Amino acid sequence: MNRYEMKRDLLRLAGLAAYRWRTLPPAVYIFNYHRVGDAGKTRFDPNVFSCDEAHFALQVRLIRARFDVIRMSQLLDLIESGRRPQRPLAMITFDDGYRDNYAAAFPILRSEGVPAVFFLPTSYIGSTRVPWWDEVAMMVRQAKQAQLEIEPWCERLPIGPPHGEAIRQVLAAFKRSELPIELKLQQLRDATGCSLGERDGAELFMNWDEVRELSAAGMDIGSHTHTHRILAHLDLTEQEQELRMSKAILEGQLGTPVDTLAYPVGGASAYTQETQELARRCGYRAAFNFIANANPCPTTSPFDLYRMGVGDNAEPADFRFLTAFAGVDFGAVPGVRQVKRVLHDVSALSRQVKRAAGLS
Predict the structure, then answer these.
(1) Looking at the whole model, is its pTM more than 0.85?
(2) Domain range spanning residue 340?
(3) pLDDT per residue over 99-117, tens digit each?
(4) Theoretical Cys-Cys bridge with 258: which of 30, 154, 207, 250, CB 3.0 to 4.6 Å?
């Protein structure tokens, strides 16, 4: 693609995104977050941060202005009644139960009068444990060697700074392997010579009083299993234990029914048809993946609902693009991946210019 062609496609795509945003069809658009805060200050995985507080507030206002934002009970009623929405609907969800969900995101949601759903892995709530994905990230950051190779699951990968991409690649290999998580963690500890301190996970996750406060304020709580293991890597007995234990603990702590689930990791290989059927038998009424698309209504797949991941401190133009082209495989469209990257870069440059001029 030459410079002229990229400029042409950039202009066409930017205009098309704006048009598609204005003319979104009636459906349910679910925006998923993980952490809210300054990714540059974490010792763990910076890629888990969806945005900082200022961008989250901006995105919440953008969602509220464009969509009717609904609660989980409204979504379940819509699914089970088979009704068609009259306009685009939206939900905001959070995975993992990090404390910044309570300390940073919750005050913004409450101030804006917008509900959200928090999917919690119950073994981490109120604990000082570091989750496996953050331990992997910490070891990559602390490792002295320039490359990492662990048979059979990690082929030679560069792990030097900058660490964000190295962490992403090591975690992708980690998630693909069906070896037990603890075995892979121990292999990484041995390979890097790194290990966790006793209090490294202190206040990383919410405690139960904070979860109850979210619930009392009108936020919805769902299951993210008990230990956040990848369900497709477990046998059906272990999967059932994860689903039932998390549901029972949440209902015991909150005193209310918990009937929705978000699959850990959430990609197409992270759960199976058997997982979906098992969730139904365990008493859940709907379950959510982490695959970018809008949800048509009525739907025939209440245990395979789509969610769009928000990341990279998305500016309004980036956010509209994410929504307008949800479900489009940019890798299959010649030149479009480069155009999307250019859109992101132009947005970043615009922010820098405004800061330099004292306009923001």
Answers:
(1) yes
(2) 335-359
(3) 999 999 999 999 999 999 9
(4) 250
